[in-house]
Design goal:
heterodimer; A: mainly alpha; two-stranded antiparallel ribbon; 69% helix; 3% strand; globular; B: alpha/beta; Rossmann fold; 22 strands
């Protein structure tokens, strides 16, 4: 009989070993899965994990996609640690993009160095404003922030759609639902020649570092962790519950809004009907795979980004159906989260009933 | 220390013991709860199992009742080896158990609750009649059609006992049955248990209240650290000698000095507060004053408004009228917990894990929870070294057995965590200390230490308010005693001018019928019977 037994203390060894176990199990599944599809498993694994990053361009794409993920996940983690479940980062990202894009369009043609900073400020305010709605409804009416923030994602997408189909549509854009291309002062400077990587990466890393300091070193971050782990203890210590909700939502909204500006002022360069391939939702997975820890989140965002690229590469190079690449990505994430059980539990093998004499 | 004596058995029948355990062992990941325990229970005897918290009493009882499977050992039931796989099997053998915490559905009637736990054939149509018959025979008056939610704690315990009796048990396990009863109700319970014993039913009586065991039991087995450390006839022992067997040493007695009264630090003036959940107790028109340099105790059976009063004093619930709660002279009714602490209030809550401390966090992080005003936070950032230092000093000063400031709060035993929480609050140099059930579930040694710490605080000129269900404790440390019943508070009186009888009657609500307009109020769940 196999039994899971709680460890008296979390295991330090398995804190590090659990991702390796997960990776090993995923490779093992791949060894079975790909031959079943008639592919050489080594080619498939090469396409997934090596091919995407074997060129400077590939590395650039990896970091480009990882930036918004780590940015948003850090903001979400601050809230999740406090049991504030902001699921609507995608909507907050969209509103950030709209606000930042609005500034870029209003200052179209300006060469002022303040255009980009203004766009960032506008994006942060936009994201926070969108996150403020579920925060207010939660603190005022005890409305569930999971549902409210999620539903606001669809509202945000439709607002963007109205704008790019209407008021902000490029008059010379052949009726495509998109705005004018931003002028140079509203575009993030490139970082590496021959790649699309821009200075947005540094913005993301700076926010992650600030997030680490806030969560691990500040008293407010400590109070939010208490609120998440033991609400009654937070109440006992006089930690205000509305303040925790507001902070948790606004930090998540600010980071998502910032990521939205990073997208429109980076690889996109204009407002389109969609400004994100789902970073706001993927960041939820990144936050948990990174164990709500900013350092873990950096690694998790790189992994998530690699999975995006690896999936595309496997579809292109091996003609694997997207369902199979999706399945393989899901397998890895599943094992990553599942292997964490070994941190708090150990497996015990024991023979059944040997204690008391039979009746 | 008294050496363990050989069992004095004058009640063992000639057919051998009803229950015989030998070599029962049960290990958990971090502790061996039962280590090769032997125990015999004769037919019709009242057998006490005595031990501090964590001595392994509850685990042993769960083994007998089939809740926990032992790792090793044999169980003989009436001479035959048995394996008790689950409570249903235990009940079929004739073993009944009354738990410390009741397992009743509040929205169902007495008969419905009892029917739920009976076999199909026993739960038949004449059940109400049988409930009436059994309750009359054993002096446990009970109306089968009443809803449990309208019953007092004592009445609910009757339901549990009658439920066991309906299954004709030959062994009844009682786990700390008196912790929720007034002294008068305890006497009634003992009459019932003695009658059962006369009829041949064996009783295993688990308690740490030594006087009760001496009054009721004919044999006692003492556990310490998961092992049997002695057996005796409690009628021939003193409470002090039993305590020595239990803790393996002498108990420190708290030092008492005459109180020197200072100014009023806590004034409760006409506090009225509606219950915030349907099974809570509303407070109505409470008055109480605690001066610097005295300990005031509030006695009462739990569920009579203590929880609500504590929340209203600590600031976890605010009250509309600022003057209803005055702290150090400041109207504080509308201040939150943090603002009240800034005035010099310290508070030890009833629940340690999850309220007084965050289970997953280290002791250092838990020190920060309320002690952050002790220069542990600067410019919004936590001073990690200072926090660890504060925790380490608290651990040393209050003799907390822990791995150090980095040990997780949940890895500590209840008594040690309580010492840490009490220490954390005391080291903030409060002007007013409020402690709810400060020694609840704490072993005898740690309890004595905590009481002494409260007395030292009093002698240093701090105002201290203690809420407790343990009358002995209140009589031991308090200068004045008030009683809470059904959300009302009887006026505090000097401890030396009163006695357990008078307090017991007040706990049953005698002052309410005599004093104010109506006896029973909104909160039937908190009502008490004598």
């Amino acid at each position: 009989m196999i039994r899971l037994e709680a460890r008296p203390e979390p295991s330090r060894t398995f804190r590090w070993a659990s991702p390796l176990i997960a990776f090993g199990l995923t490779i093992a599944i791949g060894m079975v899965l790909f031959p079943l599809m008639g592919k050489n498993p080594f080619d498939a694994l090469h396409a997934f994990f090596i091919k995407p990053v074997d060129s400077a361009y590939g590395v650039g794409e990896l970091l480009l996609k990882a930036s918004p993920l780590m940015l948003i996940a850090t903001g979400l983690a601050a809230g999740y640690r406090a049991n504030v479940w902001n699921i609507g980062a995608e909507g907050q990202l969209t509103l950030g993009g709209i606000a930042g894009g609005g500034v870029a369009l209003a200052l179209h043609g300006s060469t002022s160095p303040f255009v980009l900073p203004l766009m960032f400020v506008a994006g942060i305010i936009g994201g926070m404003a969108w996150a403020a709605i579920p925060a207010w409804l939660r603190t005022r009416f005890n409305a569930n922030e999971i549902l409210v923030s999620l539903m606001l994602v669809y509202v945000a997408t439709l607002i963007l759609s109205i704008l790019v189909h209407g008021a902000w549509r490029d008059p010379e854009g052949f009726n495509f639902p998109q705005s004018k291309m931003f002028t140079e002062s509203a575009i993030l400077p490139n970082l590496l020649p021959e790649t699309r990587l821009n200075v947005g990466l540094f913005v993301a890393l700076a926010v992650v570092a600030a997030g680490w300091v806030f969560m691990e070193k500040s008293f407010t971050g400590y109070q939010m962790r208490v609120a998440g782990l033991a609400p009654a203890a937070a109440h006992y210590a006089g930690i205000s519950s509305p303040r925790t909700v507001w902070l948790g939502m606004l930090i998540g909204g600010a980071c998502a809004g910032l990521a939205g500006v990073g997208e429109i002022a980076g690889p996109i360069g204009q407002l389109q009907a969609s400004v994100s391939p789902g970073y706001g939702f993927a960041a939820i997975i990144v936050a948990f795979v990174g164990r709500l820890n900013p350092v873990g989140i950096v690694f998790a965002s790189l992994l998530m980004s690699l999975l995006y690229l690896g999936g595309e590469s496997a579809q292109l190079n091996l003609a694997l159906p997207s369902a199979v690449t999706g399945l393989f990505q899901g397998t890895l994430l599943f094992f990553l989260l599942a292997a964490d059980v070994f941190i708090h539990y150990r497996i015990r093998l024991r023979r059944a009933a040997r204690s008391t004499a039979p009746a | 220390m008294t050496l363990p004596r050989t069992p004095v058995s004058d009640t063992v029948s000639d057919t051998g013991p009803r229950l015989a355990l030998s070599g029962i062992t049960k290990a958990y990941p971090s502790v061996v709860a039962n280590d090769a325990i032997d125990l015999d229970v004769a037919a019709g005897e009242i057998h006490a199992v005595l031990g501090e918290n964590g001595a392994g009493k509850s685990t042993l009882m769960k083994v007998i009742y089939g809740v926990v499977k032992p790792d090793a050992g044999t169980i003989l039931w009436e001479g035959k080896p048995v394996s008790i796989a689950n409570p249903a099997r235990a009940r079929r053998l004739g073993i009944g158990m009354v738990f410390q915490h009741f397992s009743l559905f509040e929205t169902l009637t007495v008969a419905e609750n009892i029917a739920l736990s009976l076999d199909r054939e026993r739960a038949g149509g004449d059940l109400p009649a049988r409930i009436r018959e059994v309750s009359a025979r054993y002096g446990l008056p009970l109306d089968p059609d009443r809803h449990v939610l309208s019953m007092s704690v004592g009445e609910r315990q009757r339901v549990e006992i009658v439920r066991c009796l309906l299954q004709d048990p030959r062994l009844l396990i009682m786990d700390e049955p008196t912790s929720v009863l007034t002294p008068q109700a305890v006497e009634k319970l003992f009459e019932t248990l003695r009658r059962l014993s006369d009829e041949g039913c064996s009783i295993l009586y688990i308690s740490h209240k030594l006087d009760e065991i001496r009054a009721l039991c004919t044999r006692a087995t003492v556990l310490r650290g998961g092992k049997v450390t002695g057996a005796c006839d409690p009628r021939r022992e003193s409470s002090a000698s039993l305590a020595r067997m239990m803790i393996g040493g002498d108990l420190p007695r708290p030092q008492h000095r005459a109180a020197k009264l200072g100014e009023a630090r806590l004034v409760v003036d006409g506090l009225t507060l509606a219950a915030d959940d349907p099974f809570g107790t509303s407070l109505s028109d409470l008055h109480l004053t605690v001066h610097a340099g005295e300990i005031v105790g509030i006695a009462g059976v739990s569920g009579n408004g203590q929880k609500e009063l504590m929340a209203a004093l600590s600031g976890e619930r605010t009250v509309d009228s600022p003057g209803a709660v005055r702290l150090m002279g400041t109207p504080a009714g509308r201040l939150d917990a943090e603002e009240r602490r800034a005035l010099g209030l310290a508070f030890v809550p009833e629940e340690r894990l999850g309220r007084g401390a965050v289970p997953e966090m280290s002791l250092a992080e838990n020190a920060l929870l309320t002690a952050h005003r002790q220069d542990l936070v600067r410019n919004g950032f936590v001073r990690t070294d200072a926090v660890r230092g504060f925790a380490a000093e608290t651990i040393a000063q209050f003799n907390v057995k822990a791995g150090g400031p980095d040990a997780a709060a949940r890895s500590l035993s209840g008594g040690n965590l309580q010492k840490f929480i009490v220490g954390r609050e005391i080291r903030q140099a409060p002007k007013l200390m409020i402690a709810a059930q400060p020694t609840w579930g704490v072993d005898v040694g740690a309890a004595a230490q905590i009481r002494q710490a409260l007395i030292d605080l009093r002698d240093a000129g701090v105002a201290v308010l203690v809420v407790s269900e343990e009358l002995d404790e209140l009589f031991e440390i308090c200068d004045r005693l008030a009683v809470i019943a059904q959300g009302r508070l009887a006026d505090a009186r000097p401890t030396r001018d009163t006695n357990a009888e008078e307090i017991g009657l007040l706990m049953a609500g005698s002052f309410i019928a005599a004093g104010t307009e109506s006896g029973r109020r909104l909160s039937p769940a908190g009502a008490v019977d004598v």
